[in-house]
Amino acid sequence: MNPRPADPSRRTLLSLAATASVTAALGSLPAFTASAAPHRPTAAPERVTSSRHLLWWRAPADEHSMIEQGLPLGNGRLGALAGNDPGRELLLVTDATMWTGGVNDTLDADGQFPYGRDDFGSFTLLARLTVDLPGHDLSAVNDYRRTLDLARGVVTTTYVRSGVTYRRQMFASRPDDVIVLHFTQNGRGRYTGSVTLDGTHGETPSTAESFAGSFPGGLRYGAAVTAYGTGGRVRVNGTRIDFSGCTDLTVVVSGGTDYAPDAEAKYRDPSLDPEKLARAKVRAAAAHSADTLLRTHAADHGDLFGRLDLSLGTSTEAQRSLDTWERLNARAHGGAPDPELEAAYLQYGRYLMIAGSRGSLPLNLQGLWLDGNDPEWMGDYHTDINLQMNYWMADRAGLSPCFDALTDYCLAQLPSWTSLTRELFNDPRNRYRNSSGKNAGWTVAISTNPHGGNGWWWHPAGSAWLCNTLFEHYEYTVSRSHLERIYPLLKGACEFWEARLLTTTLPGGSREVLIADSDWSPEHGPLDAKGITYAQELVWALFGNYAAASARLRKDTGYAATIAGLREKLHLPRVSPTTGWLEEWMSPDNLGETTHRHLSPLVGLFPGDRIRPDASTPADLIDGVTALLTARGTESFGWANAWRGLCWARLKNAENAYRLVVNNLRPSVNGGNGTAFNLFDIYEMAPGRGIFQIDANFGTPAAMMEMLVYSRPGSVEVLPALPDAWAEAGSVTGVPVRGGFVVDLAWRYGKPTEVRLRSTGGRTTKVAHGEVSRTVTLEAGGSVTLKDLAR
Amino acid sequence: MRSSPYPALPARALRTTAVLALAAGLLTAAPAAQADTAPTAAPVAAKPFMGWSSWSMQSSKYPGLNPDGDYSYLTEANVLKQTNALAAKLKKYGYEYVNIDAGWWRDKTWKPEFDRYARQQADPVRFPNGMKSVADRIHAKGLKAGIYLPAGLEKEAYNDGKSPIWNADGCTTADIVHGDLRTTNGWDSSYKLDFSRPCTQKYIDSQARSIADWGYDFLKLDGVGPGSGKNGDQYDNVADVAAWNKAIAATGRPIHLEISWSLDIGHAADWKKYSQGWRIDTDVECYCNTLVSWENSVDDRWDDAPAWTRHAGPGGWNDLDSLDVGNGEMDGLTKAERQSYATLWAIAKSPLYTGDDLTRLDSYGLSLLTDREVIAINQGDAPPAQPVTPADPQQVWAAKNPDGTYTVALFNLADAPAAVTADWGTLGFTGKAGVRDVWNHENLGTRQNRITQALPAHGSRLFTVTPRGGAVTTTAYEAEAPANTLAGNASVAGCSACSGEKKVGNLYLGGSLRFNDVVVAKAGTYQVKVTYVSGDPRSLDVSANGGGTTRHTFASTGDWGTAAGVYVPVTLKAGANTITLDSGSGYAPDIDRIDVPKSA
């Protein structure tokens, strides 16, 4: 097993990346740099994956529906959607840093940011790989099947043609930093065909084996491929690689950009030649057999995947006999729970995070996967829910190392975000500028890119929410080094808000309170409202987190006292006497859309901790929150449903939370809301036009975990919202909880039968189920098993 | 032919001539078609005919095909070139007809030419040696020759009513049409013939005589109504078809009469009586840069063929139009689409005539056109296949063969690959069956209960299935049973085609039918046969025990007096279940009954 590395500083590693002396920290190397030899497992047994972790289908993808039918691969930065057609394998290859655009620091006439594919930029495809096998047309083969092995990170396609079973396996290896396709067969079959690697931006191919290109914004990129086989002939033929008569064939692809997460270097590494590096990487990998590459990859992937195991109950044999798409349909049409499918959906979210968030930029709106170069909203980082939601699952589902990509990103952007804030936020044309005239710290716009740039409208509360998300990761890991890294972000956000808060007196009262300046509660209602609940709650939490950080690090105690004083004076929202809902705009009236997708005024319920269904929170506030959540409904889409599910889990309403999970599991038909063939979450933009947004693929599993285990520092509650569908018997192991522990949990008939708590740095916490609770104190690394929580 | 540019003819002064009335009832009293086509003639259309037709290439804007203007491909030289290619490449597989389509009597500006008897005559530029010479050259290759005419008296042939009718003393063109010169056929390009006038049959006889004298073996009569986009008395050409049938018989030459297009299924009995084949749909050609395209309109046939299935058989066949699968680039279709196209035509027992350039068949196209097993399905003794599942994007068609095997085709009409399953229950048996993959010429061994295959977008598979298990036993639940619950406007109605002579209808806008006590021993997914009546394609939401619904589309059964059955999968629990058939927000077919297998 590979224990989590001890929080190496990303920036340090970047400077060391090319040296071979950092082998101990290899697991955290940014991938597209020269790297030392991968760690190869010695005599690793071929692990057999449980059928619980196998998704399978009986049809390949359509070349024009890859976003719904392609199977995702990824090594954390290098990704692909694979079509798996027998006669024409297609991989749409991505690199997380493959972005057009730039810093985008010229405001539009309204004081907001341009938001186009040239100025702000867009996430785009790196390459397109095809492997043509004439004669292997889908119509000419039998018993086609493809599987996604979540535990090993491998896509396998099998089919029979003229009595020979053909098998192809593919995976994206982080240790070797390549994508590998391995074609084998079990009889007298031979592989004859061609491999083609193309760019998608009109590049002129250098050779069949590689190409290079650059964007107007200066980003340079390149990709390379090689192929080798047994028993036949492989040779370059013009712009493709031909192979003939091979009993097996291995194709290796890599590529990347000269992006560097360094504001001072303007986010480029001028010493990096992407095409050359890609060629070196495929050459290095091709020195090994496909089996060796697979074993190395599976061990690396499996170490992360295996951290959390989950059973929500046993499915029927009839359910197990269905392929994944049929099973989703049966779940929706028959209405009977399918606990193994539901657990697999959660594990699929974990698979996507391992594949999409390691060693490079964080998961964007599309994660790491594209089917074209014009993704909706540029495939960017949306800071008013989507980016945060992408990472709610990381710690909750045992993937804390995958969180680091978000931290690294924010740190790398901070200098640019700070200078943009200082130079542009108080522009007189910006309706959200600080009316105090003061300006300090940093914030972001609703959209951010990796070039230090903002897009679309200013989002004053964005800095607070990003910081709270980063701080929550500290609460899970209690890692001092993480806290040290994010401290400048927290402090800068506090400074921003110190300069921005306005003093006012509430009507009918005399007490002075602090409220946020003019802002838009995402993404409805008045554009300029002061004291919106969203901002008040986020800043209240930010100030609290800052105090905790300052105390732990023993830094800036004077400034921490100032911030604590401001926090005392922050206005906190009340319940409207008119609607009975928690107010969103310091107004008793409903100024927005009742069933709006965002739950902005509920950030204090989730992800915040201020509003809790226990004695700490007045009953009328709980009633107001519940009434607002009820009014928002259960028939939204992807991330909006996931957030609702998280909130209902926090309110311990298991059946409402479960209903929202199940709503997201509905199959997407004709672009409708729901889960696509490949389990990507689809949002119906317009009738018949669905788009992929990955947040629900993470938010829904986060809600499922939140139904099983609730935590905040010093307090853990098991099975707070266990639905009937999962109640009979289940277990989950390896669940990190806030305060620095990991929980293993088993239940029967809705009651915990065994709860094991292991310290990963935490000391004391309360552990509860329902009305029963225990206080546990552990040494770091120590553990305790509780069997009496159900009594 | 759908859209040929017949020039409009200015209205002429009407001329009426008193003539003897033909004995009323003569035509309608005629015996059935085959008996009527003269006992001396060899049997025609015992099997769907096979061959080539000129229209696909004539109608296409594919580069180079029609350099001298629209439809200009049709020339003697080109017909003979295709004749030679047909003889060389396809004849040995059974292809024998070379069919000349519209325009042989029109110049390149589409101006028609007639002889002094108002009969179409060869354009001397297109056919410098006349029509007989072409037929002779076709015959010399051991092939049969086909020719084409539109229904009615073409306006340009009217000649102010002055042209005499051949071999009909005193008859002129004025004596064969209606006094008001009402027009007819799918393009209103002809004056409607008045068969109450004795001269009229003489005109048809004279045309038939020409064709027979030239040596043609086949006639396509086009623009026939009701059909060809027209209906009403003015466009009722049943009498024309009957007259042709009679005229052909009188020639003594066996000439296959094929009628076109989109013929009215309500007149199927007439078409069967007087012709040997009828186009059920609009032109398959796209009139675009390729010969055809999937959406315009190859794929219409899956929706429209089922209602016609029962009308096809020896002597007369459902004509799905040209089979243009021989050259992928020119056809404008993917390989998968071409295979599906060939599969449906074969199993529906449509005539197999290609419209491709036979000099440029690609190897895949040649393999599709010359697959002996597939041709044998088309030409064999089994009835045409029909759908056993609803008309959903994934569908299964089947026919039971005389030897007890089944021809089973899977289709994926969706725009993306999908798995398609043929459940043996939809064929009426259960357990094991041997499966032969027809297109791939492979035996796939024994399969239990079903076969599932991945199909590409618009793709297909074709199997011969040999049952080795037992028959499915079912329990019937009549829709009209009093124990059922009807909701909305649903009501019981009489139905002579239905079991119990009753059905439940008025299933629209929320109307529903619930079977309340469907008992099965074990939980599982059952193939429930839904027998229904529907004059047009309609949809139905099917659910069990109040669970989620699945919407299925049901093909037209042809009219509101004909029942058909298809199978829908329904998941039931052990014991008593409810099954609900709900119109939802639309219009649903009338329901005769459901049959539920006793075991899943």
CATH superfamily of the largest domain in chain B: Aldolase class I
Instruction: Please indicate the percent range of residues of chain A in DSSP E strands (runs of 2 or more).
Output: 15-25%
User: So how many helices of chain B?
Assistant: 13
Number of strands of chain B: 30
The CATH class of the domain at 10-104 and 126-319 in chain A, by name, is: Mainly Beta
Radius of gyration of chain A: 26 Å
The CATH topology of the largest domain in chain B is what?
TIM Barrel
| Principal-axis shape of chain B | globular
Strand ordering within the main sheet of chain B: 10-9-8-7-3-2-1-11
Q: What level of helicity do the residues of chain A show?
A: 25-40%
Low-confidence stretches of chain B: 2-42
Largest sheet of chain A: 8 strands, antiparallel
As a whole number of angstroms, the C-alpha radius of gyration of chain B is 26 Å
Largest interface: A-B, 31 and 31 residues
Protein name (chain B): Alpha-galactosidase
EC number (chain B): 3.2.1.22
Domain CBM6 (chain B): 475-597
GO molecular function, one term (chain B): carbohydrate binding
Characterize the structure shown.
The complex is a heterodimer of chains A (791) and B (600). Chain A is of the alpha+beta class and 791 residues long. Chain A is built from 18 helices and 32 strands. Among the domains of chain A are: 10-104 and 126-319, putative glycoside hydrolase family protein from bacillus halodurans (Beta-galactosidase, Chain A, domain 5); 401-592, Alpha/alpha barrel (Glycosyltransferase); 725-786, Immunoglobulin-like (Sandwich). Chain B has 600 residues and is α+β, with helices and mostly antiparallel strands. Chain B is 19% helix and 27% strand. Chain B is built from 13 helices and 30 strands. An eight-stranded parallel beta sheet of chain B has the order 10-9-8-7-3-2-1-11. In chain B, strands 12-13-14-19-16-17 form a six-stranded antiparallel beta sheet, covered by helices on one side. A five-stranded antiparallel beta sheet of chain B has the order 21-24-29-26-27, with no helix packed on it. Chain B starts with 32 loop residues before the first helix and ends with a strand. The chains are: A alpha+beta (791), B alpha+beta (600). The interface between A and B is medium-sized, with 31 and 31 residues.
